[in-house]
Design brief:
mainly alpha, 62% helix, rod-shaped, binds zinc ion
Length: 185
Amino acid sequence: MLVRVEGLQDTVDRRSRAKAALAAWRARHPDYDRLYYIAHREACIARVTAWKKAHPERVRDYERQNNMQHPEREQERGRLHQARRRAHLRGTIVYQERRRIDKQVRRQRERAAGTLRPSQWKVIIALYRGRCVYCGRPGALEMDHVVPVALGGRTEMSNVVPACSACNMAKGSRAPLKPVQVCLL
Ligand SMILES: [Zn+2]
């Protein structure tokens, strides 16, 4: 059903004609917006800022829509934010203090978890002829826990073998790289 309201159709027609005229004018002057912006940059920015301030919910909707269309941008922003946050944290005293305490606690826990004395460690190194138990190379040796400390392994003669730092790093907190004979003293 079509209801004709006097005057309304005229208004609609006038509006669509004006719209079409504006579009045609814009097509003839493709650089107008850009030039206008260059000439009135500050005023343009101020107007947009004011509009954004007056329509926070529209801005939010727009941003939400934009984020949905470009999830990778949102992720990138998140990554940047986290990186900045970490960089900031690293510079703070609270963070440094926490790191120091963590390290202290870890060392205490490691010490408490075993009874290996320095003299016993020397005996172990001698038993393995000063060589890495995995690759056989001589040199600087670290204590490698056969059962990792993280899994409850203790620092004691029956759980510690000498390993070069490369092999120790490669092993991490996993099972030994190859079967090893621990000291059974
Ligand atoms: Zn090695």
